[in-house]
Amino acid sequence: MRAGVLPILLAYSLSKRNEDIVVYYEDREIALDVDTIINMVDYPTKYSIFISKDSADKDRYLYNLYDLFADKADKNLSGNRIANILTCMQRWYRGLPQVTKNIRKGNEYISNERILKALPKLKNVMQRMDVNAYEVIFEILPNICGYEDYDKTVEFLSVLKTKLNGYMDWLLQKVTEVTRDIFRLDGKDDMIHTLKAWYEKQSDVAKHGLYNTSISGFMSCIGDIDTYDEYSVVQKIMKIVTEVHADSWNDDTYNEYVDKLQQLKNDIEAIGSENRKGSCVLSFTGKNGEVIQKYYDPVDSDEGTMFRNIIEDQLESFSDLDVNVRVAILLEMIEKVMRKEE
Predict the structure, then answer these.
(1) What is the C-alpha separation between 172 and 258, in angstroms, rounded?
(2) Residues 6+ apart with CB under 8 A from 90
(3) Is 77 exposed, middle or buried, given 0-12, 13-18 or 19+ CB atoms closer than 10 A?
(4) H helix intervals, 95-149
(5) How is the beta sheet containing 21-25 ordered, strand by strand?
(6) Is the pTM value of this prediction over 0.90?
(7) How far is residue 134 from each of residues 83, 87, 124, measured CA to CA in Å?
(8) Per DSSP, which regions of the chain are E strands?
(9) Cβ within 8 Å of residue 208, ≥6 positions away
(10) Pick from 243, 240, 245, 261: which is nearest to 194 by CA?
């Protein structure tokens, strides 16, 4: 009552309307709440109200959109059903893996040109915060879908949503199959058994040598497989080979992965026992009691000069420590470096 009777009368009048009501502050759509009603009375020239005409087509359109995108877990929704629908759509889209939102080109999974054309426009709308819900739902979405008919718009969005929801699983299945094909000795085994069989045929120095991150990481990954969940394993391999997590790939990463994986396989198979006869062997028991044995090549005195000098200086600075302490700490650091490479 402190704000006067006008806000109460305005709120009462709006509550009696069954149509969808949209409030604009200048040209920006805002939520209809108590503060908005009071401000509308205080600054009437800055606000405008749009009341959508009743329409069976519009009502069915809104109902179908809500049914398509609403989730039982959706919370913190306003009383405006149009804004609620847009909120649900944006929450769905933002919850997709980045790899799905990175789609730009057609592939075996998504070849529909209308969908491919719609994706960048949909991404722009779904990731923006400053959009007018009414405009998006009734104007922008039908335009993106390429239909003036609301029913056809919903049908198109349903197909698009199904495609995007399944893209990550399709990609993982495709990568799993190509990984198996690159390493398989015959066409019978699944990816896990194929990788294990290939690993067993590699030389001891290939399995336990210190190499670049890709080789050491890949061999450790295969050697440590303790599951038959192909998607879990292949995602680790995808990260090792491309240095990009599976859910952050883009359209070009798959071909990059295939090329790099084939080259990685060739490089590992070229590591034989004969060409590593001059290698040094580092063998010790790690902190968890595991026996660690690795092959490595000695380096020339001019390689890593600064690194070597820093270590030598630090060893001299802490010469008062027992030899056992210094060696134990150095081995702990060596183990940490090797674990990180894996």
Answers:
(1) 13
(2) 126, 127
(3) middle
(4) 98-101, 113-126, 133-135, 141-145
(5) 28-30, 21-25, 47-51
(6) no
(7) 7, 12, 16
(8) 21-25, 28-30, 47-51, 280-285, 291-296
(9) 293, 294, 295
(10) 261
What phi, psi does 206 have (nearest 5°)? -70, -35
pLDDT in tens, 193-224: 999 999 999 988 888 777 788 988 899 899 98
3-state helix, strand, coil in the chain (%, to 5): 60, 10, 30
CB 199 within 8 A of CB 223: yes
Both tokens of 190, joined, read 């699944």
Separation in Å, CA 269 to CA 120, 263, 294: 43, 10, 18
Q: What's the full length of the chain, in residues?
A: 342
Q: What secondary structure does DSSP assign to 203-254, as a single string? A: -HHHHHB---HHHHHHHHHHHT-----HHHHHHHHHHHHHSS-GGG--TTHH
CA-angle at 129, arms to 78 and 159, nearest 5°: 85
Residue 283's pLDDT is what?
Answer: 74
> Is residue 1 over pLDDT 50?
no
Q: Strands, DSSP E only, in 26-107? A: 28-30, 47-51
Q: What is the pLDDT of residues 67-79, one digit of tens each?
A: 999 876 566 776 6
CA–CA separation, 23 and 134 (whole Å): 10
**Tokens at 76, concatenated:** 């913190």
Tokens of 250: 């883009």
Q: Which long-range contacts (CB under 8 A, 24 or more apart) does 138-146 make?
A: 138/58, 144/118, 145/114, 145/118, 146/114, 146/117, 146/118
CA diameter of the chain: 94
For the chain, what is the radius of gyration of the CA atoms?
Answer: 31
DSSP 44: G
Distance of alpha carbon 211 from alpha carbon 268, whole angstroms: 10
Query: What tokens appear for 284 in the block?
Result: 């010790």
Residue 214: Cβ within 10 Å count: 19
Q: What are phi and psi of 285, to 5 degrees?
A: -100, 125
Q: Using alpha carbons only, what angle is made at residue 339 by residues 184 and 301, rounded to the nearest 5 degrees?
A: 105
Reading the block at residue 239, the tokens are 């990260």
Q: Taking the mean position of all CA atoms in its chain, how far away is CA 96?
A: 8
pLDDT tens column, 93-110 = 999 999 999 999 999 999
